Each structure stands twice: as C-alpha cells, then as structure tokens.
Amino acid sequence: MTETTTAGGVPQTPNTEILRLTDVGKRYGNVHALRGVSLSVRQGEITCVLGDNGAGKSTLIKIIAGLHQHSEGTVQVNGEEVRFGSPRESLERGIATVYQDLALVPLMSIWRNFFLGAELRTGVGPLKRLDVKRMVAIADEELTKMGIAVPDLERPVGALSGGQRQCIAIARAIYFGAKVLILDEPTAALGVKQSGVVLKYVAKARDAGLGVIFITHNPHHAYLVGNHFVILNRGNVSLDMARSQITLDRLTNEMAGGAELEALSHELSAPGQTPEPAAVLAASRETGR
Ligand SMILES: Nc1ncnc2c1ncn2[C@@H]1O[C@H](COP(=O)(O)OP(=O)(O)OP(=O)(O)O)[C@@H](O)[C@H]1O
C-alpha cells in the first residue's frame, strides 16, 4: 500500500518497499491454504500478520523463507520477482527467519550459538582453528549494541529465559546482514514481562532499518509495535490497514472474528438461552475457532 504521510506539514516519502507479495496462493493437493494474499514489507517498518490457528500464517512464512513454493501470484524482493527453491536462496536475498523453536543448541554457549553455522576461523591450512576470541568479542559487542544484558557469554543458551533466547536470535539475524526479518510468533510462549522485552528488540530491529514481518495471534502485542496490520482468515486477507487507519479495539475485534463472536456472545448472554456446551463446541468447530 502506498501512502504519503505528513509530519509537521512536510510530506514524508514512504519507506522503500523491500518485499511484496501479490495475489499469492498456495495449494497442498486439495487444500487451498492461501488465496490472493497481497502484502508489502517496507524498510524500517513492522508488518504484523495476525491470524488464528489454520489461518495460513505458517504457510506464508514458509513461502517467504524458501521452504515451500507458492502455487499462484508473485513474490518480489526489491522489485525483482523471485521464487525460492530453498531456505538458502531466501537467506541470500537478506531474508532471515526466526522460528519459534529458534534453531539454537541449548547446551552450547551463547557466543557459539551466535555464530552457529558461520563460525569465524583463524590460521591457514591444517592450522586453521576457531577464532574464539574474535567471536566472543563480536557477540559481546552486538548484544551490548542491542542492549541485551548477558553477563557471561560462556553460559549455555539453554540456561537463558525464552525471551533472552529470542533476543539473541534477533541480534544474530541483524548482525549477519538481514534486510527482512520474519518473526514466527516470538511472544507466543512467553509471559507478559518477557513478551515486553522481546517486543523491545523487535522495535530495535525496525529502528535498525530492517523490514520486519511479525507473525502473531495477539493483537495487543502487534499493536504495541506494528506499522501495518494484515489479518489472515482461512487463507484469505480479511484486513489490511496501516496503523493510522485502525484502533487497537477494532484490530482486536476483527481478530476475534468480529460479527461471528458478537453473535455467539449474544447467544451466550441471552437469559435462559444459554446453549448447551455441545452446541457451542459444534458452532466453534464450524467457524474453525
Ligand atoms: N503440508 C501440508 N499439507 C496439507 N495441508 C496443509 C499443510 N500445511 C498446512 N496445511 C493446511 O493449510 C492450512 C493453513 O495451515 P497453516 O499451518 O499455514 O496455518 P497457521 O495459521 O500457521 O496455523 P497454526 O497457527 O495452527 O500453525 C490449514 O488448513 C492446514 O491444515
């Protein structure tokens, strides 16, 4: 979406678009998991993709991350059409994905995890060895830059809290030059305080100029940091709005199913007409909620 905002009467050019999906669809055999999905990600902005279970969020991530290919539509990176054949191809275009399970090795040290798969080496030929000193120094500098307080980088990553581990994965993606950062429900398994810490680093990634796709089913978390909101509902985009166009209340309501939820709430609150639990379950099964 192109929108020109004004600040103090001065027109602001919209940030550069890095990633654009146009009418993207995905079929798994007979299952049409995504249909006509269009969205854009801009530098220095957070695009939140919200949706309930089965809405198609994972499918969307997998297409952008190169794990699956789309069946319809186009994906463009910096204006150039792409079709990723592997996660490596997506990574080479500057797209980094931080999955919920993080791909960190719990028993390995923090610095080792920071460089996992991209270890620095020193020396030549048979004398080549890991450049531990440099890796520790860089990991320390990068985490400090992000304001992540880890007193001892030799500690195993598994000893850190879930929130700290998310932050380390985000800092690592930024250090290795990500232009687009996909975060797969980074706050889903966290409590309120830890979620706040992670959201702070999501905002830092945005402030570092990355385009962020923040996948979540929590409208409150999305609204704390998002510039743009896209709701997926059974594979379709049911809402696509800039922050200036929507309130948290409306986002929450749309996310909760809007009219469907209102009808159910009305049914449940009507005196003497409380539906049998079995009927409620059947209704929720029908609506997929
Ligand atoms: N490999 C697959 N083969 C067949 N159907 C699939 C496959 N992966 C996903 N689906 C179907 O596609 C639809 C979207 O699933 P997807 O996992 O993308 O949703 P989601 O929003 O990520 O849900 P959740 O939050 O539960 O992970 C669902 O109906 C799902 O059953």
Automatic annotation (TrEMBL):
Coiled coil: none annotated. Residues 19-259 form the ABC transporter domain. Keywords: ATP-binding, Nucleotide-binding. The keyword Mitochondrion does not apply. Residues 268-289 are annotated as: Disordered. One of its GO terms (molecular function) is ATP binding. This is ATP-binding cassette domain-containing protein. It comes from Kineococcus glutinatus.
